[in-house]
């Protein structure tokens, strides 16, 4: 508790100093990480709090996931939540430490009896995924894309429905995002949850989830704030607020 109040006090002191408004590109709605309507969520709260440590104010702008790096490249924003596999250092970006790390897995209906251990196991299967996954995981998805069996969609609720309705065979999603939307569906009348199977297919690479800033000093301020968030315990508290609902 004492560490928490020290962090808040330090943040207030820092706010007195000159900070800037940081316009950052985020994906549209990705609960529990991003709630577009009220500018909340695990990822937004962590980034906002880390920037606030040095007096900066976060202003989110929302785009379809695949357009996040484009918004940065076109100088529509000061920062981006991630690069979606595009090297934004070439566009003047400074990479920061990751605020959150997505745990992406292949998900299938257990009743389909599909096994995924190698890229060849995806042959003939239809894959619904978040936008940019084809860039992030070319070894697994290149053939799927070439054969037009890949559907990248920014609305990840749609992914769940496509799998449950058997329109697509496999969903590639962060496991927490997928479970969030399943839980939302459970609140509906006459909805019957279906058992699914998850297949981990790639080691999590934290570097894939680094925010990017146009200004090096702001990037450094963010990294320091993120470090202080973790040391104070507030980082975990933000996660707990959303994951223990």
Q: What would you note in describing this structure?
A:
This protein has 245 residues and is α/β, with parallel strands linked by helices. The chain has 2 domains: 2-100 and 206-243, D-Maltodextrin-Binding Protein, domain 2 (3-Layer(aba) Sandwich), CATH 3.40.190.10; 104-199, 3-Layer(aba) Sandwich (D-Maltodextrin-Binding Protein, domain 2). It is 38% helix and 17% strand. The protein has 9 helices and 10 strands. It has a 5-stranded mixed beta sheet with strand order 2-1-3-10-4. Strands 7-6-8-5-9 form a 5-stranded mixed beta sheet. α2 packs across α8 (216-232) and α6 (156-164) packs across α7 (175-186). The longest helix has 17 residues, at 216-232. It is globular, with a radius of gyration of 19 Å. The protein starts with a helix and ends with a helix. The model has no long low-confidence stretch (mean pLDDT 90).
CATH class of the largest domain: Alpha Beta
The helix-strand sequence is: HEHEHEEEEHHEHEHEEHH
Largest sheet: 5 strands, mixed
Secondary structure class reads alpha/beta
- Number of E strands: 10
Relative strand content: 15-25%
Instruction: Report Rg.
Output: 19 Å
Named at the architecture level, the CATH assignment of the largest domain is 3-Layer(aba) Sandwich
Average residue pLDDT: 90
Number of domains: 2
Runs in which pLDDT lies below 50 for 5 or more consecutive residues are none
User: Could you name the CATH topology of the largest domain?
Assistant: D-Maltodextrin-Binding Protein, domain 2
CATH superfamily of the largest domain: Periplasmic binding protein-like II
Largest sheet strand order: 2-1-3-10-4
Helix content: 25-40%
Q: How does the overall form come out from the CA principal axes?
A: globular
Family: Belongs to the bacterial solute-binding protein 3 family.
Keywords: Signal
Pfam families: SBP_bac_3 (PF00497)
Domain Solute-binding protein family 3/N-terminal: 21-245
